User: What shape does this take?
Amino acid sequence: MADSTAALCVTIPRARHEIHDGFLEPAYCHVYANKKAHPVIKAGTGSYPPGSLIVKAKFRDVNAPERVELYTVMRKRAVGYDLENGDWEYSVVDGRTRRVLTRGTIESCIGCHCEYKSTDYVTREYLTPGNGEP
Ligand code: HEC
Assistant: This one.
């Protein structure tokens, strides 16, 4: 997580990311992209180079974004890691302890993110105008 640059920082009120862990109460998130991922996520076209890292930090109190409950992470691995699904490694990290709870080619993550194949499995929903802000 240390190498993720706070280059992209968007707060999504009541974002759909509550689905990430079955959370039904309002939650917010910040999305961070490292230097490799940043130009691609900004542009919204092309594919992410190996080493790209995108971290979504979810928090419940909009006034306390530092109190992260859960991180969901996508890391672009080398070509061939998971060719069919864009070579992304998914992981879930506990917000408080920073412990990796699960990691790999997680089927549930892919199940949703495969809908976003045209943008290399990255939703970019929070970058869509009119999405997110109340
Ligand atoms: C039910 C569909 C769904 C599932 C399952 C899902 N995601 Fe997402 N994910 C989304 C949506 C929608 C967004 C856009 C932000 C938001 O609304 O929270 C997103 C955003 C993200 C982002 C920010 C980058 C991007 O794609 O825009 C990361 C990182 C991420 N998810 C990781 C994961 C991981 C890891 C898992 C599995 C543990 C997972 N997701 C499972 C729908 C899903």
Observations:
- Confidence is low (pLDDT under 50) at residues 1-19.
- Residues 8 and 125 are 13 Å apart (CA to CA).
